[in-house]
Amino acid sequence: MRHSLASGGGGRTLGRRHLTLTPQHCTRVLLIGNSRWHWGERNAFGLHFDHALPDVARLEGGMGGWAAVGAVPAQLMSAEQRRITLRDVPLAGCPPWLGVDRAIGAWAGWTRSSTLSLDLSSGLLLVDAGTVLSITVLSPDGEFVGGQLIPGYRLQLLAMTQGTEALTETVFAAPGKEQFPKDTMSAMRRGVLQAMVSAVQDAQRACGGLLWLCGGDAELLATELRHSSPRLQLDPELQLRGLFDLLDASI
Question: Where are the domains of the chain?
Fold first, then answer.
């Protein structure tokens, strides 16, 4: 895997593109997701994260860098030089259509695993539990292998609600511990979570890689997976941390 970021004379560069970055810019980052905007802010006390519906008014505060897989508002077009795209992520083997969020997350998981001297001899398995549950596999050399995409927790519940007459889920809460609930809503929640857990377990058996969980529902999955994956690494904010790391490396 390529860990170094290219730099050239007369300015800072990331990957193959010139980015307009200065240290003070890199106190605030934004990752535009499929359904929410994910913010990271850094101050003297550390990193802080929050996740909310799109709000263009928050763009007025400026930012050090941003990336997007969802719709980009017109207000960000003038900040294109601070956008992180797939070609800015030093992850080998990525096809041009790969979502930048998956690339950032996989790169961040790999670099952190290396720093922590974790066992990467079987590669890495990144599971991003967001609107979509994305599974990304890296080889033992840190190269992109491939992955899987399935609807996430809330999207699966929403599909059952909208696609049937009798199944109604108004609160997308976490399921209880009961494996076979009697009431309908609990059964829906348990069934969706169990399907997601099984998908992750199947992927782990197939590739054997070190498991990283990130995304909004990462902790929900971690509760179910810890007994079968004792080496599991959990960081719901992995991609935002990776975005900061990429920007810091360019300065």
Answer: 13-87+243-249, 92-238
